[in-house]
Amino acid sequence: MFSAETKDKCLQRFRNGVVLTTAVKLGKGLEHKADGERLRDLGLFSLEKRRLRGDLIALYNCLKGGCREVGSVSSPRVVQHWNRLPREVVESPSLEVFKSRLDVALRDMA
Asked: Out of the domains of life, which is the source (predicted)?
């Protein structure tokens, strides 16, 4: 549906804090779609999933020795999602591997 260049521009602008409507202007055919469909078409997560992803990454870092106080990132909501993650995600050998495996798990999450 979109060229690789257009999608890359959308993703870069989205990551840099530009709102979704700017990304939509770059991609033809997204103007009349709901936000959820736009995000899905661009291969992006909803705000809720992005926040959860960040919280799970912070918890992973704490559990692997990256912080002194786990309680600062271990809200019941985050712990509940952590406990539902597949073993291969939780036992990832590095942060980069964890992030890529987490992204797959979050895409499969309803």
From this structure: Eukaryota
Q: Which domain holds residue 23?
A: 4-42
Could you tell me the two tokens for 103?
């992204």
Q: For the chain, how many structural domains are there in total?
A: 2
Clarify whether residues 100 and 53 are in a common domain. yes
Q: Within this chain, do residues 76 and 94 fall inside the same structural domain, yes or no?
A: yes
37-95 pLDDT, tens digit per residue, is 666 666 666 778 888 888 999 889 888 877 766 666 668 888 899 999 999 999 999 99
What distance in Å separates the CA atoms of residue 110 and residue 107, rounded to the nearest whole number?
8
